[in-house]
Structure formats: structure tokens, C-alpha cells
Amino acid sequence: xxxxxxxxxxxxxxxxxxxxxxxxxxxxxxxxxxxxxxxxxxxxxxxxxxxxxxxxxxxxxxxxxxxxxxxxxxxxxxxxxxxxxxxxxxxxxxxxxxxxxxxxxxxxxxxxxxxxxxxxxxxxxxxxxxxxxxxxxxxxxxxxxxxxxxxxxxxxxxxxxxxxxxxxxxxxxxxxxxxxxxxxxxxxxxxxxxxxxxxxxxxxxxxxxxxxxxxxxxxxxxxxxxxxxxxxxxxxxxxxxxxxxxxxxxxxxxxxxxxxxxxxxxxxxxxxxxxxxxxxxxxxxxxxxxxxxxxxxxxxxxxxxxxxxxxxxxxxxxxxxxxxxxxxxxxxxxxxxxxxxxxxxxxxxxxxxxxxxxxxxxxxxxxxxxxxxxxxxxxxxxxxxxxxxxxxxxxxxxxxxxxxxxxxxxxxxxxxxxxxxxxxxxxxxxxxxxxxxxxxxxxxxxxxxxxxxxxxxxxxxxxxxxxxxxxxxxxxxxxxxxxxxxxxxxxxxxxxxxxxxxxxxxxxxxxxxxxxxxxxxxxxxxxxxxxxxxxxxxxxxxx
Length: 543
Description:
With 543 residues, this protein is mainly alpha-helical. The protein has one domain (7-538). It is built from 23 helices and six strands. A two-stranded antiparallel ribbon has the order 1-6. A two-stranded antiparallel ribbon has the order 2-5. Strands 3-4 form a two-stranded antiparallel ribbon. Helix 14 packs across helix 16. The longest helix is centred in the middle third of the chain and has 55 residues, at 179-233. The protein is globular. The two termini are 29 Å apart.
């Protein structure tokens, strides 16, 4: 007996995803509320249509809870580290340092709207790059709509390996693919997206005239950052975006020392006539924010220096990583179970979470190291810790509920055969053309949920199963899924709202999405075409 793959079962398998899409896009529900509804619908469909049972579903949810904890540990650790630095004025000081370096408009844009927001994505994510980058650009005199759109574009390519690679961890877990094999392909796709995003950021500000004047520096900065991400992802994925952002800031800093880029440039020197007219038409009053350098850069960056040292020690001190990861390990062992249709989930262990050696723990250690340094230097005041914990709880609660609901829904769909049914229907319907559209599936997931992590959880297994049915590389299909989910971040409503609210453009989110939409769709199709060429022409033997 096997799962009947027909129009009815395919539509039923699609219902949880359709529900989330409708609730978030048309009803304006949050990802946390919509995710819970999607989980419940998946539960009902699994029972009534795919002949699962409550015992199996309990196992699926238990597996999902362990995986959710794996991802959430990173999220909460990253938020803790970020707020420790931000609360003492460190983030503001880091940003102000880079603003001081040049008055060249394109270098300012690349510095703040591309390199710095990539660094912020590496350490925090969850809208922080847009929340910090947009006011900085407004303070530099950029048009408010552009000031929000540019960080959205500029950080999007780096999301997969950002936030200490939480999205990549979700991709690994949902597909079951080994990280050491998956990382090179994923980093190649996202790195290529990074080069396009640098050019798109400039075009968003200054049109083709800006690209004509700034293509050289854009290629140098983006090329160095993409190469760094690709190399580091194969060593330590959790540091790939973080170090790429640092390299980008260093490269821009070096370029600012060149006489050609030290002089101040007016918008009229960079913008084409059409873009200049648009910018002039949007000069109504807006809320700006002045960023003040409250401490030296080295001190502001102290917690992140600590993170680099901690990760390097764990990686290079013989036996240290294995020792750290053997203490307080959360894992569950499950028997084999199957549905009435004969869909089997093999016996074995769930994901393993080491409380002491997990990436999330390393983030907490770095935050504690930062607290010690800031206390010694007099920047950490009484009561600051309580403030930090409050902000972490406020920022993390909604995203944690959304992520958990999406993870549980995905496990139900995979282990009841729903994801297989979707993949089978798609593969039969589109056949060999499907890979061209694979990145747009990732984009859709990120738009729906506001998160590449959730997009990978929802569609990672789906993409891998389509690849298996088509007889092409699951590594490439999974990688292009995450690259699509990454660039889809520039459309995520929650991030757009964060950006507009920080510069006084609340209610004008549609204008911002109107600016970013074309870049996202163009890049998604480009990545899809490249994926198709790799799958069917250049790397046909890769599985």
C-alpha cells in the first residue's frame, strides 16, 4: 500500500502552506499566529487524509521540538550578544566609526548599506541590520525610502549563514544532508547573490549612472565578501557571514584611504536625472537619528573579538570541541514508525543539542566576556543586565513561537508523506523546468514567514524530494532553496516594517517593497537559470 498521489491529496498536502500564506498576506497575521494554524491544519490533514495516527504524530512533534530548540538556542544567543553590545552604545559606535571614514556617496552606501549590515546579519539578524542601517543612511542624507530599501537588499544575500548560521542549520536538519557537503554549494549561490546585491543596492540609490561610477568598488567589496563567506563556510559556517562583514568593512576602509574616494560627492554627481528627480520629490520631513561614537572602535567591538577567539579555540585546540559537546546533550531516540499508507520513518536519534558546546552557548560566552570588558571600562551600569534580558525576551518570543510552529509543521508534513506528495506532483507537472523556479519557492517561504530559517524548514525537504524524483543533485537544489530564502528577506513584511518605523515612514511599506521586489525577482530567476545549467549541463554527476 502506498500514498495515492492525485489532485485531491496534493491540494490537501498544500493546505498548511496555503493557510499560512493567506493568513499572513491577506489577513496580516503574525508568523507566530499563522504558524500555529498551519501546524494544526497539518495535524488534521495528516490524520484524516494521509492515514497517520496520534502516536506517530507525537513522535514527529517530539523530533520537531528538539530541532526547534537547536535553532532557537542560536537565535537567543545571538540576541543576547547583540543587546549586550548595543546597550552600552557599541553598535552605535561601530556604525559611527564607519560613517566618519568617507564622504563619497557610493562608498558610504556600500559601507553602511552592504558591508556593515552584513556584519550585523552575522551577529544578530531578525531585522537588526535594517533597524540600524536605515537610520544611519538617513543621518547621512539619503532619501528615507532608499535608506530602508538599501539595507534590505544589502543584507539579504548573507542571511543563510547569518545569525551564526541558524538558517543553514535548519536547512541541514530539514534535508538530512551533511553540512560539509552542503556548505560549498550553498555559499557559492549566496556569494553570487551577494555580488548582484551590491550592484542592486547602488542601482536602488543612483540608477545606472551610479553603477557606471561605482561598479569597480562594488565588485571589489562584494567579491572579497563573497569569497570570504565561501571559504569560511567550509570551515565554520557559523562564522561565514560574520567574517564576510568584517572583511567588507576592512576593504571599504582601505578604499576610503585612496585620494579618489576621500572627497565629498554630491548626489547630483552620482544620480542620473530620473533618479535625482525621484529623490527630490521625496524630500518631505522624516525622522532621522544622529549616531554618536560613544567609545573607541576596539572597545565597542570587544564582545565580537571575544566571539572570534572563543570559536577559534573550540575549533583549533585539539579535543576541546569534542569535550565541550559531550556535556549535557539533549537527544531523543525513536523507534521506527509508519502510517497506514506505509510511509515509514526510520528508527534513530533526533537532532543532538549540546548545551555546553552548541553555537548558541558560544554566543552566550562571548556576551559574558563583553559584559566583563564593559564593566571594567565603566560602560556597564547597574541594572543593564536586567534591561538586556528584557529586550532579548521581547525580541525573541515572537520569532521563537513562529519558528517552533513552522518546525513542528514541517516534521508532520515530512513524516506523514505530505511533503513527498507535494514534490511528486510538482516534479510531474513541471519536470525538468522546475529548478528554474526553485529559488522563488525559497523567496515565497521567506516572504510568508519573514525568515529564511522558516523557509528552509518548510521547503528544504520538499526541494530535496523534488530533486530525488527528478534524478538531479539534492545538494544543488537544497542550496538554491536557501539562496532564494535568503534574498527573499528583502521582501519580508516584518523587516520592511522595522525599517520604515525607524525612519518615520510607517504606512509607506508598499513603496519600499516596490523598490525591492524587482531586484528580488530578477535575482531569483538568475539563480534558477544557473541552478538549471548546473543540474543538467555542467554538474550532472553531482548528487
